Amino acid sequence: MQERARTTRRSLLEAAAQLFAEQGYAGTSVNDISARSGRTSGAVYFHYASKEGIALAVVQHRFATWPQLTARYADAAVPPVQRLVALSYDIARALAEDPLTRAGARLWAERATIDAPLPDPFALWTAAATRLLAEARNAGDLAKHVRPGPTARTLVRAFFGLCSLTEALEGAATVTDRLTDWWQLTLPSLGAAPGIHPWDGAPAGE
Amino acid sequence: MQERARTTRRSLLEAAAQLFAEQGYAGTSVNDISARSGRTSGAVYFHYASKEGIALAVVQHRFATWPQLTARYADAAVPPVQRLVALSYDIARALAEDPLTRAGARLWAERATIDAPLPDPFALWTAAATRLLAEARNAGDLAKHVRPGPTARTLVRAFFGLCSLTEALEGAATVTDRLTDWWQLTLPSLGAAPGIHPWDGAPAGE
């Protein structure tokens, strides 16, 4: 792709992500995306064919950043459960602050009204959590009855519900605190090594 | 209210709940509600003034059944944590099967597109869970650091996320099994008496 086309696409995606996150899919028109990005609506149709097309591109673009994020949690020197907790804070922060991630979550919530097969992030999250829990088990950090796959599935669903419901009921600023409450309630059951505390996963100052 | 008016309202509410649960708010028209209930759309407008009005009535009608449900969990002879688990299975089953509850959950998910102040069930659920956890604490069934209020808040959000995400990803039939996975992961952290198992809350055969 030419550099100029790439720049155009990026500005369209950023504008669309902001608008989808703020106003939802039905509340956002191609004209809104054009106005917010400073490009013509002809440019939107040229690059993405339709509003469905740009919604799909927003979600795919967000998925493209996932390998970079998980790569940060591959350091074998850090206990795997601690890396899992830290990853969850990173995702929670993205859900609260990053327009692409927020747009993805809102488009997922509104998927019944969108005529495009939007992929969801839960399979990726569950795979990453399964891998970290399997590492934790090999390191002897999990209780014997905790199986990585089903546990990862349960954790991801409860985590996402906690984050989205907390934002809806109390606002995005509270999500990190509620996530800490949740880990405090959840970690003891994993049988994680007693030295691991959920707040180790939060950056300093939170 | 006259008996005949009551019958009409009930049939309108049931039709509206089914349609909202199946097709969502935007996908349901007053004409659809009229056709499904076998009443005229004039009857809808006479009793509820607007589509927003009937959505609100569906949610309020569902709330009205809550005291009956919680009354079933007041038996002091049953350990309170076990009653909490049983209540969660009842709510999960209603979310999977009861049209009024399903409509309420879908309307809540679509609240941004509905021009009416829809109450949410989470405060009621959290109050009930707080009460049961406080009873459990008095009975010595909780770990010392588990505070009823914040723990109830965390449990309710994780529970609802688990149920709704499980239904979206795997279908309603799997919700009970996933709820059992979740309680198995969560109960040990509560420090609940070791004799209480999550499946005690599920009816026989599930």
Explain the overall architecture:
- Chains A, B: Residues 6-66 form the HTH tetR-type domain.
- Chains A, B: One of its GO terms (molecular function) is transcription cis-regulatory region binding.
- Chains A, B: InterPro entries: ArpA-like, CprB_TetR_C, Homeodomain-like_sf, HTH-type_TetR-like_transc_reg, HTH_TetR, Tet_transcr_reg_TetR-rel_C_sf.
- Chains A, B: This is AcrR family transcriptional regulator.
- The structure is a homodimer of 206-residue chains.
- Chain A is mainly α and 206 residues long.
- Chain A has two domains: 3-61, Orthogonal Bundle (Arc Repressor Mutant, subunit A); 65-201, Tetracycline Repressor, domain 2, CATH 1.10.357.10.
- Chain A contains ten helices and no strands.
- In chain A, helix 6 (80-97) crosses helix 7.
- Chain A starts with a helix and ends in a 16-residue tail after the last helix.
List the helices and strands and how they pair.
The structure is a homodimer of 206-residue chains.
Chain A: H1 3-23, H2 30-37, H3 41-48, H4 51-64, H5 66-71, H6 80-97, H7 99-109, H8 122-138, H9 148-170, H10 175-190
Concise synopsis of the structure shown:
Two copies of one chain form a homodimer. Chain A has ten helices and no strands.
CATH topology of the largest domain in chain A: Tetracycline Repressor, domain 2
Integer average pLDDT of chain A: 89
Under the CATH scheme, which architecture of the largest domain in chain A would be assigned? Orthogonal Bundle
Based on secondary structure, the structural category of chain A is mainly alpha
The global form of chain A is: elongated
Number of helices of chain A: 10
Assembly level: homodimer
Q: Helix and strand succession of chain A?
A: HHHHHHHHHH
* Uncertain residue segments of chain A: 198-206
CATH C-level label of the largest domain in chain A: Mainly Alpha
Largest interface: A-B, 34 and 34 residues
